Amino acid sequence: MEHAAALAAPAVPVPFFTQAATLEAVWPQAEANLAEVIARGKYSHGHMVERFEHVLAERIGAARVVGVGSGTDALVLLLRAIGLEPGDEVVVPAFSFIASASSVVLAGGRPVFADIGPDDYAIDPDAAADAVTDLTRALMPVHLFSQLADLGALAEVADRYAVSLVEDSAEAIGMRWDGRHAGLHGSGGVLSFFPTKTLGALGDAGAVITDDDRIADTAAALRHHGRFGRTLAHFPGIANETVLPGFNSKMDDFQAAVLLAKLTRLDADIARRAELARAYTERLAGCPGVRKTPVLVDRGVPTDPVFYVYLVEVERRDALAAHLAAHGVGTETYYPVPLHLQPCFADLGYRAGQFPVAEAACAHTLALPLYPDLPDAAVDRVCELVRAFYTGNPT
Ligand SMILES: *Cc1c(COP(=O)(O)O)cnc(C)c1O
């Protein structure tokens, strides 16, 4: 009888993402910060944004953090700030979020794709080297899911061909290579504070991060219509003139207020994510149908991984996702279409089959729920559902 009752009880849904409990924990601090913004009356590009930029810069060990409207904007501004010119090529992995490549187009350049490695899902350094031409201006590795691209080898390729290294480190807050934070290994990088990210706001926000004052100053001007506002060391004598056609991509002080509060628990959030990832990997070990759980690649130097996304490679991916959805479990496909086959890049002339590792990743990977609010029991349930799907034993 008890068994029948348990079966009949509706299972608690497991959303792909929620941050309700995390937010509740930091709300008193967030509320105080928000009240301060309201009292000061400047809601964008104001003192809370400046405070957030300084606190975050200290935290990640960057000389400069420039808060902007989104991670995507940060990529466009960073590429513009390094001086990308029309026709310049940027080597980008074929497997990433669309913005890694569309930012290149929006900054006036041309993305050139390269295949990825099968374990880190990041650009393969040899493939990146092969993609370099006389027009190459930069390599743009993307650090996805839980670990950094091979920055040692990529910095060496960038040096060899005298091209810039810019990092799409939108997902990589907390990740370090030999002690140095993601995004600070070449000209600069970006962070996204989209709500689902490891440090998530309550809407869109992002940042350019760099140790180069000229790049930071240029990005800071570009976010604000190309106005420098104050006299800056690298651009003497210009205060209020517009010297570059810019954007309106200022960071919102209300988002900065929330982000400053959430920053106080970033380490705890990262530790909880690691704990949940370990639990998934243990419970999915040997599960039929699961081809691969995350593999952290040994780089020969200390690296700090951060589980932003828990990605598995599975058989019959879409059917598994549908099975989980039918049982109230949310999943995501990161990323369903490789960049070289996206319709918006059709004029670049790529074909299916050119980047087999990226194409296989698009076909077989699935992201399972992973966020600090997720209870241990939810991991058990998701793993039981996965096992039941492949063994044909309905739970
Ligand atoms: C989230 C993300 C972006 C874009 O950031 P937004 O803040 O959503 O604009 C860019 N690149 C990667 C790899 C991302 O994961």
TrEMBL record:
This is DegT/DnrJ/EryC1/StrS family aminotransferase. It comes from the Bacteria. PANTHER family: 3-OXO-GLUCOSE-6-PHOSPHATE:GLUTAMATE AMINOTRANSFERASE, TRANSAMINASE. Keywords: Aminotransferase, Pyridoxal phosphate, Transferase. It comes from Actinokineospora soli. InterPro entries: DegT/StrS_aminotransferase, PyrdxlP-dep_Trfase, PyrdxlP-dep_Trfase_major, PyrdxlP-dep_Trfase_small. One of its GO terms (molecular function) is transaminase activity. Belongs to the DegT/DnrJ/EryC1 family. It holds the Pfam family DegT_DnrJ_EryC1. Coiled coil: none annotated.
